[in-house]
Predict the structure.
Amino acid sequence: MMPPAKIFLLLIFSWAVFPRPLQAREEPPASPSWPRCVPARPGSRILFLGNSYTFFNRMPAMVKAMADTKGLRPDVHMHAAPAASLQSHWNDRRARSNMEGTAWDFVILQDQSATPIRAPERTMEFGEKWCSLIRAAKGTPILMLTWGKRGASGTPDPQEQKDLLETYLKLARREKAALAPVGIAWENCLKRHTDIQLYQTDGRHPTEEGSYLTACVIYFTLFGKSPLGLPGRLSLKGTRLSNLPADRARILQTVARDTCRQLFSATAGTRPATAGLQAAALSPHSAKSTRKTGTGPLPWQRTYILL
């Protein structure tokens, strides 16, 4: 029998001469898919809650007009005021009571443009409150990822857009809310089509083209349908909402479709084109509008439109 000392030396020699095989490289954990929702059914009740980024050019009415051309006939409402935030909406007693007293299948939440950048904890706090209230009423919250102010290159300011994305994705992940990638579509559009003006001269608010692109992204997010082929000239109840030539509208529709399709089709294990930030998939919610609906317009101090 070989002495123990020699066995030990032999083992050391074997390890040195015949090193252990290389271990397979450990893969990073798979990224959850982009937060999205089960498509809205015809007749769904939809509420937009936001400020001028939402109500400029009657963007929610554009979404309804788009859906109406496809026979979806959603019941769309808007509850918005200039410079309003999720916090100011929450602190308005009437806003919450109207939310609690009316059945909404989907509620699209848009915070004040700078809050997710300068005070993300406030967006998180009041976004969570709203999402909880919406889910308690059996509705689906959808967050509207907005655009940063116009940067030096004409596209959204890179740092602002990064901060907006991070805050909204974090909130969507935590609250299992869907996320409409409007700001990403704006960035994609302005990088590819320098002749298109999405910003007003103030470098913040949307032009008609900006609101139309926003509506296309929300249309895709809500209904799961490509906006390609929708009219560029939209009207609702005799009011002209947009007057875009077909070729111009098609460019915006294509950007919205490509942006949403790339993000929404990303599965676990793939990274969406959003600086690698992660988001959780949304638990499906069917939105057949069969619940009791509210009667009459909601009271609001500045802007409330019953579409």
